[in-house]
């Protein structure tokens, strides 16, 4: 009997799974070690594209919505369990996990430059670890589109 374990097989997957497997395995390692310290990360662009003198910050509302709605659905847990990488107790922890950190950011549509922090997240290390990829992707796509639109 074969089972379809692709993410598409689960109807109620959440944005919480929009993370790297590495982030989840690191989160489990922190959880197993009892690490609960606060972590802080800043999101910034190292260098601008060669044809750009600036970028336009975009996507803040979607990023904040994703953080406030962070939940691992039952389907998310089933998918993670199917990987055979996670302890049941850790999966129970994820089922109850909610983002409780804080975010500081530039205002939407602000112009920014290379190496300028545009968003800073402070949260318990597990939460910060899990949301990093989601925030990076939201930021990258929306900032790229807004910057291109502004230059049109």
Automatic annotation (TrEMBL):
Pathway: Cofactor biosynthesis; NAD(+) biosynthesis. GO terms for biological process: NAD+ biosynthetic process via the salvage pathway. Keywords: Glycosyltransferase, Pyridine nucleotide biosynthesis, Transferase. It catalyses: 5-phospho-alpha-D-ribose 1-diphosphate + nicotinate + ATP + H2O = nicotinate beta-D-ribonucleotide + ADP + phosphate + diphosphate. Belongs to the NAPRTase family. It holds the Pfam family NAPRTase_N. GO terms for molecular function: glycosyltransferase activity; nicotinate phosphoribosyltransferase activity. This is Nicotinate phosphoribosyltransferase. InterPro entries: NAPRTase_N (IPR040727), Nic_PRibTrfase-Fam (IPR007229). SUPFAM superfamilies: Nicotinate/Quinolinate PRTase N-terminal domain-like. The keyword Transferase applies. One of its GO terms (cellular component) is cytosol. Residues 17-138 form the Nicotinate phosphoribosyltransferase N-terminal domain. It comes from Geodia barretti. The keyword Transferase applies.
